Amino acid sequence: MASIVILMHYGQGTRPGGRQIAKALIKNPVILSVLAGLAFNASGLPLGATPENILKILGGASLPLGLLAVGAGLDIQAARTAHGPVMQSSVVKLLLVPLLTLGIGMALGISGPVLATIVLFNALPCTPSAYIMAKLLGGDHRLSAGIITIQTLLAALTIPLILLLTQFSAHPA
Questions:
Q1: pLDDT tens digits for 29-83?
Q2: I want to staple 98 with a disulfide (CB 3.0 to 4.6 A). Which of 62, 72, 123, 143 is the partner?
């Protein structure tokens, strides 16, 4: 929800009103999907084999379709021009956030697979849906495409490094 408000503010260049924010939140497909899933889960109703299979197929296609959308909107020149924000966001997202997660997790006494899962989750690159959100809400979708592309490439290096550090932290010398 915070990303929607931020994108509305910076994408439109004006401070959105409460009514505009509420309208954007109510119409947002991600929020609607989460609310529908929560309601269905709380209902206790069985899903059934056919709808489950359809949803699995659609879910499996969502990442490739999102990446295709990012690829179609990718502007290498825009990413090069904005290399500062691209690299800054990449360092924060791929190194700083997972390392902070590791430190906080260790301070709280979390270890083993639970700590590795939490750290890994926070070491993932920016999601392709960020491109779609930026485009829909008037943000810099070209910059978003560049960030997603660079982070996805860099994650091939940073994720193994972060997992290695997580493993070493579990066995102090």
A1: 888 888 998 999 999 988 888 988 888 888 888 777 777 777 766 667 766 777 7
A2: 123
- The total of other beta-carbon atoms located within 10 Å of residue 168's CB is 10
Distance (Å, rounded) from C-alpha 36 to C-alpha 22? Answer: 18
The Cα–Cα gap between 111 and 170 comes to: 7
Classify residue 138 as left (phi > 0), alpha (psi -120 to 50) or beta: left
Is the pTM here over 0.70, yes or no? Answer: no
Q: CB atoms < 10 A from the CB of 65, how many?
A: 12
The C-alpha atoms of residue 95 and residue 81 are separated, in whole angstroms, by 23
Interatomic CA distance for residues 10 and 16, integer angstroms? 10
Cα four-point dihedral sign 134, 140, 143, 147: negative
pLDDT in tens, 68-78: 777 766 667 76
Q: Is 21 exposed, middle or buried (0-12, 13-18, 19+ CB in 10 A)?
A: middle
Q: pLDDT digits over 85-106, tens only?
A: 889 999 999 999 999 999 999 9
Other CB atoms within 10 Å distance of the CB of residue 106: 16
